[in-house]
């Protein structure tokens, strides 16, 4: 009873500080969320222990949410989601442990200036389609769309779009399988 009451009180508080906060959201211990007013979280979402979600909007007054997390999304432990321009995780997306999704990167070449103060290099929204599973330790880079029902292998670095119904692995990630609707099965591609 005590635990349920505490979770209920936490959810009430979160409904006031997030841009949108769905029902049955579980944020586990050690999670750090920066600027929640720019984040929309759907229903039945779990954010795993020690994960970080941070928003540093490129626009000082964004007209929409910078991070949108759909319904039934699971972020396993120790994930990092960082956004300036826009990240969308559609319904039933799963991020396995130690994955990272970022929509920007920075220069580092000037050794007289901390990298945090150097100019943004790569930038662009990230969109992960519904029913997609991202394996452990994967990194989704800026300006990438991953189509629905895709699987991203563990340790992959996704630096370009992945079509729907694909399995992609490697550094950089390449498609090794596609779902064939005529054969009703996953088939290997030339990659």
Descriptive notes:
The chain has 191 residues and is mainly β. It has a single domain, classed as UDP N-Acetylglucosamine Acyltransferase, domain 1. It is 8% helix and 36% strand. The strands form four sheets. It has a nine-stranded mixed sheet, with no helix packed on it. It has a six-stranded parallel sheet with strand order 1-4-7-10-15-18, covered by helices on one side. It has a six-stranded parallel sheet with strand order 3-6-9-12-17-20, with no helix packed on it. β22 and β23 form a beta hairpin. The chain is globular and about 50 Å long. The chain starts with a helix and ends with a strand. The model has no long low-confidence stretch (mean pLDDT 92).
Assembly state: single chain
CATH superfamily: Hexapeptide repeat proteins
Strand percentage lies at: 35-45%
Give the overall pLDDT as a whole number: 92
Strand order of the largest sheet: 2-5-8-11-16-19-21-22-23
Q: What is the N-to-C succession of helices and strands?
A: HEEEEEEEEEEEEEEEEEEEEEEE
- The number of strands is 23
CATH class: Mainly Beta
Give a short account of the largest sheet.
9 strands, mixed
Rg over C-alpha atoms, rounded to the nearest angstrom: 18 Å
**Share in helix:** under 10%
- In the predicted model, the low-confidence regions spanning at least 5 consecutive residues are none
Tally of individual helices:
1
> Roughly how many Å apart are the termini?
53 Å
CATH architectural type: 3 Solenoid
Derived structural class? mainly beta
């Amino acid at each position: 009873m005590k635990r349920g009451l505490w979770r209920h009180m936490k959810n009430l508080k979160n409904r006031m500080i997030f841009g949108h906060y769905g029902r049955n959201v579980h944020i586990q211990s050690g999670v750090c969320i920066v600027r929640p007013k720019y984040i929309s979280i759907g229903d039945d979402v779990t954010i795993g222990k020690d994960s970080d979600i941070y928003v540093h909007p490129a626009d000082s007054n964004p007209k929409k949410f910078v991070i949108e997390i759909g319904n039934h999304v699971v972020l396993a432990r120790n994930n990092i989601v960082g956004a300036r321009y826009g990240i969308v995780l559609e319904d039933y997306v799963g991020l396995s442990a130690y994955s990272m999704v970022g929509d920007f990167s920075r220069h580092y070449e000037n050794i007289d200036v901390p990298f945090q103060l150097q100019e943004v290099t790569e930038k662009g929204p990230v969109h992960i389609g519904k029913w997609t599973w991202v394996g452990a330790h994967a990194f989704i880079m800026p300006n990438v769309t991953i189509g629905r029902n895709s699987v991203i292998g563990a340790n992959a670095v996704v630096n370009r779009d992945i079509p729907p119904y694909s399995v992609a692995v490697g550094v950089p990630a390449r498609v090794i399988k596609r779902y064939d609707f005529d054969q009703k099965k996953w088939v290997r591609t030339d990659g």
